[in-house]
Amino acid sequence: MTTSTSFRDAVERYLDTFDRGVLPIVQAGHPVLRQPAAAYDGQLGDLLPALLDSMRLTMVDAPGVGLAAPQIGIGLQIAVLHDAGSTDPEDPRERTPLEHRVLVNPSYEGVGDEVRSFYEGCLSVEGYQAVVARHRTVRLTGQDETGRALDEQLTGWPARIVQHETDHLRGQLYIDHAETRSLATNDNLGTLWSGPSGLTEASESLIFPLA
């Protein structure tokens, strides 16, 4: 039995443990979240669609807008994304809809000098959010689940999602890039800083800069 086959079989047993449905999400403090994920080069073979289905179900159930394979304990450079977007055309986050998609071996680089600061959370850091300054526009490269090459630009919240999930594959969490003084529980964020001027008020009251 080859190492690749052993890995595939281990992932299959893991998925079957949960009837190939919703999987447990690994929380901060687990080593898998801090180790750069291995490039995907076909290790899972015909099991890849089943893994992607379980990742999508897990992301939707959480609910979240993205999920990287290390967040379910699998150290491969694979992520799923989906966001219905905002119904507010004036949403400063530019939260446009992002159709369900898969990223394999993704990488990004900032396009231009524009940076935006917004509160951001993570399914692997339950209960908290913090402000992260990120590129407004990024160039995304990599592949999709079929191996088709990706090379595109994304702006606004979709660009933030790509940055967040790709960082997971590098062994990084959003808190590594956050303004630590902005850290807030979900309850406090909703109660104190959820209004139109909430981000500015949080910056002034908690004393942290905005990009």
From TrEMBL:
GO biological process, alphabetically ordered: translation
Annotated cofactor note: Binds 1 Fe(2+) ion.
Protein name: Peptide deformylase
CC cofactor: Fe(2+)
One MF annotation (Gene Ontology) recorded for this entry: peptide deformylase activity
PANTHER family, per the entry: PEPTIDE DEFORMYLASE, PEPTIDE DEFORMYLASE, MITOCHONDRIAL
Binding of Fe cation, residues: 122, 164, 168
Catalytic activity: N-terminal N-formyl-L-methionyl-[peptide] + H2O = N-terminal L-methionyl-[peptide] + formate
SUPFAM superfamilies associated with the record: Peptide deformylase
Biological function: Removes the formyl group from the N-terminal Met of newly synthesized proteins. Requires at least a dipeptide for an efficient rate of reaction. N-terminal L-methionine is a prerequisite for activity but the enzyme has broad specificity at other positions.
Keyword annotations of the record: Hydrolase, Iron, Metal-binding, Protein biosynthesis
Family: Belongs to the polypeptide deformylase family.
CDD domains in alphabetical order: Pep_deformylase (cd00487)
Organismal lineage: Bacteria, Bacillati, Actinomycetota, Actinomycetes, Micrococcales
EC assignment: 3.5.1.88
Active site positions: 165
